[in-house]
Each structure stands twice: as C-alpha cells, then as structure tokens.
C-alpha cells in the first residue's frame, strides 16, 4: 500500500518542542522551590509550560501512525492508533465521507463529524493528490469552480485541481 503520512522531521520537531516546553516548566518549578516561598509567577509558568508539554506529548502518542494508506481499490484513513476507517474509492461519497478543498485547508470530513487533515508537507502527498484526482473523488465546500450554477453537479477533485493548478497538475508543473 502507498501511504501519505507526516514527515519524520515534523515528528522529531514535535518531540523537541515538547521537551523544550517541559524544560521551561521544570526550570520554573525549580526556581519556585529554590526561593523557599510560594511565587505565583513561577507556579503559573511551571503549570502552563508543563501542561503544554504533557498535552503535546500525549497528543503525539495518541495520534501516532495517522495518515492515509491507499492502493488502486481502497483507502484507509488512520485518524489515530485506534480509529482506522477503510473504504473502497467508489463508496466514499455514499459513506458520508467528504473531501473539503479550500484555499487554506484540505481535509476529509466524516459523517460523525471527525476529520483528518491532508497537509502538503506530508510524505507522499503529491501522489495521494494525484490518486484523488484520478479517482474523481467528489469535493465539498471550499472551491466551486463552476460558480453557483453548478450546484447540481458537485465538483470533483480533478476539476478543482485543474482549476487551481492548470492542466499541468500531476506532471510536475504545479511546483
């Protein structure tokens, strides 16, 4: 299966950010303890930075392995380690899965309200976008190239990509 997943560099950066936040929280706590009296500023700083570090590390572990795994017949959306959803390409629209392509974000929205972002920085993003275009995945919200008169025929990813990037999309001409 092909995959579209976060880059290793992004995961390392997240880990380093959590470590940095934790270090600031620990230094603030140590400074508060060293003075021998309760300093509200040190206490708040330690709580905020320590809390952010714990939340970031927990979030990174909880969503480890998220991304898109696909082949010619099906696509697997891995929202987290425990939430994986598999569909055949043809049944995406019928299952309530919408591909939202807007000027600032690309994501898949599920019928239960959960969503998974598609980030241009992800490993394999270009190949995944090309597959979306080839499969004619319907695009919802965001950009409607045909204007208001095209409401009866929702735009497909192929039409959206052609409108934004031109006919050279997928041939290396979009960079």
Q: In words, what does this structure look like?
A:
The protein has about 180 residues and is α+β, with helices and mostly antiparallel strands. It has four helices and eight strands; from the N terminus they run βααββββββαβα. The protein has helices at about 10-35, 40-60, 125-135, 155-165, and strands at about 1-5, 65-70, 75-80, 85-90, 100, 105-110, 115, 140. A four-stranded antiparallel sheet has the order 1-2-3-4, with helices on one face. The radius of gyration is 21 Å and the shape is elongated. The two termini are about 25 Å apart.
Q: How is the main sheet built?
A: 4 strands, antiparallel
**Counted beta strands:** 8
Unreliable residue stretches? 143-152
- Structural class of the secondary structure composition? alpha+beta
> What is the succession of H and E elements?
EHHEEEEEEHEH
Strand arrangement across the biggest beta sheet? 1-2-3-4
Shape label: elongated
Assembly category: single chain
Any descriptors?
40% helix, alpha+beta, single chain, 4-stranded antiparallel beta sheet, 175 residues, 8 strands, 4-stranded mixed beta sheet, 4 helices
């Amino acid at each position: 299966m092909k995959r579209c997943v976060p880059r290793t560099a992004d995961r390392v950066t997240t880990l380093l950010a959590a470590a940095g936040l934790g270090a600031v929280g620990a230094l603030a706590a140590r400074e508060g303890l060293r003075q021998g009296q309760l300093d509200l500023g040190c206490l708040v700083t330690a709580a905020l930075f320590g809390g952010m570090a714990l939340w970031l590390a927990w979030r990174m572990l909880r969503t480890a392995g998220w991304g898109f795994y696909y082949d010619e017949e099906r696509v697997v959306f891995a929202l987290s380690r425990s939430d994986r959803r598999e569909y055949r390409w043809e049944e995406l629209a019928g299952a309530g899965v919408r591909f939202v392509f807007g000027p600032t974000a690309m994501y898949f929205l599920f019928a239960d309200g959960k969503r998974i972002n598609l980030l241009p920085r992800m490993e394999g993003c270009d190949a995944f976008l090309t597959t979306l275009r080839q499969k004619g995945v319907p695009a919802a919200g965001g950009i409607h190239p045909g204007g208001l008169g095209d409401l009866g025929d929702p735009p497909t990813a192929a039409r959206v990509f052609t409108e934004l990037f031109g006919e050279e999309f997928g041939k290396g001409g979009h960079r």
